[in-house]
Design brief:
The structure is a single chain. By secondary structure, the chain is mainly alpha-helical. The protein has a single domain, classed as Up-down Bundle (Four Helix Bundle (Hemerythrin (Met), subunit A)), CATH 1.20.120. It is built from seven helices and no strands. It is globular.
C-alpha cells in the first residue's frame, strides 16, 4: 500500500510538471504528449482505486461491487469528504473510458483535468494520515 501511495504522489508531481511544461496546443500537436497525458491520468486514477479498495478490505468497510463503491465506502466511514467522493468517482468513470475506449475523449477535456490534480493530492494527504 505504501508503494501505491508513493506512486500516486510521484504521479501527482509529474502531472503538475506536465501542466507547467506543455500547453493544450503542445499536446494537441504531439501524439506522444497526448499519450503521456492519457497514461499519466490513467495510472494516477488506478492508484487511487487500488488504494481505496485496499483500505476498504483492510478496515472491513464492506463488500464493494465496483471501484466507485470503494471510494464511496471511504466516504461513508468519514475517511474522505463528500466533495472528494464526487470528484474521484467521476475520475473512475474517466478511467473506464480510457481503458475501454467507449468513446473518443477530446484532448482538451483531458488537459482540463490537469486543473483537478489537487483532488488527487487531497486524497493522498488524507490517506497518508491513515497509514
Amino acid at each position: 500500500m505504501l508503494e501505491r501511495l508513493k506512486l500516486l504522489e510521484e504521479n501527482i508531481n509529474e502531472l503538475m510538471a506536465f501542466r507547467k511544461k506543455y500547453t493544450l496546443k503542445d499536446v494537441q500537436e504531439d501524439k506522444a504528449r497526448e499519450w503521456a497525458l492519457r497514461y499519466g491520468l490513467l495510472e494516477t486514477i488506478q492508484a487511487v482505486i487500488d488504494i481505496s479498495c485496499h483500505l476498504v478490505s483492510k478496515y472491513n468497510l464492506g463488500n464493494p461491487a465496483s471501484y466507485s463503491e470503494c471510494i464511496e465506502l471511504l466516504g461513508k466511514f468519514n475517511y474522505i469528504d463528500n466533495e472528494l467522493i464526487i470528484k474521484l468517482t467521476g475520475m473512475v468513470g474517466l478511467r473506464n473510458l480510457l481503458i475501454h475506449e467507449y468513446m473518443i475523449i477530446e484532448v482538451n477535456k483531458l488537459y482540463d483535468l490537469l486543473n483537478d490534480v489537487g483532488d488527487f493530492n487531497k486524497f493522498a494527504q488524507k490517506i497518508s494520515e491513515m497509514v
